[in-house]
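Exam review. A common question shows you a sequence with its structure tokens and asks you to describe the fold in words. Practice with the pair below. Do the first one on your own.
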Amino acid sequence: MELKENLGNTEINTNEPPKTDYWFLIKFWGAVILGILFLVSRCDFSSDEVAQPDNKVRSIMYTEKYIEEIIKSPSTADFGTPEVTRIGSDTYHVKNYVDSENSFGAMIRMKYECDIKWNGNDYTIDNVITD
């Protein structure tokens, strides 16, 4: 049984599903997709920025590399948490310790501190003090 109501000049058929405005849906989802594409295009996914540590982190890495060259057993080196102080525009003072085996196989602790200066892509380590 089909039910129709007369409301003035407009007839409403209550058995039919409501009409969907497909153009509205197409415009809506198109705007969502364009918005996502815009946001993704604004992101910088360059690997150089992610892979390059700052000079403070590099100072720690190169200082530890230098200390590993002067200890007897670099494979046993266990570095502490370094104290890094910036003392110039591209110069850092690094203070730390390393536990490693000596020539007899005993674990010893060596404290060290040094200054590391960055010259573009290269560095120099000065004022190395060890005990």
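Now try the second one, then compare your answer with the model answer below.
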Amino acid sequence: MILDVEGRKLSLGHKQTKPNPWDVYEKEFAVDTTHESKVSEIIEKGAIINFNDDISAFSPARHLEKKDGSKLEQGESAQFIVIEFSKEFKRVVVSHLQTHNDSSQETVDEEKVKEKKSKKETVDEEKVKEKKSKKETVDEEKVKEKKSKKKDEK
């Protein structure tokens, strides 16, 4: 309700009588929260997932993959993780793929870190060995030079 006393106007709006449901959804559908729903519609670039009468989410096609590698189909019920929420643009993006890929992805990341450390240690060890080898070669050459100088002096 807007009241303009000087202009003698009173404005009423239907939307102003109800609280904004996106304020509630902002908490309920926060990023990384998990929800179960059915795939309502398959479209070219993904799928529409209806959580209730007011809120629908988009799931990109690559995020519709199940554990067995197949894609979710219309009418199938599944778990979805919210990967993006925008109250301003009234947009929710969800992923089914991340419900079963998160733990394995962490494992893969940990293995990559270990592999990098292992490679670095191997490279470092090789560098140390190479330096020692060069130093020993240089030391041997110096010894040979000294011996040849001593022979020349005699």
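Model answer, second protein: The beta strands are 2-4, 9-11, 34-43, 46-50, 56-60, 77-86, 91-95. Residues 98-154 form one domain. Full marks require stating both points clearly.
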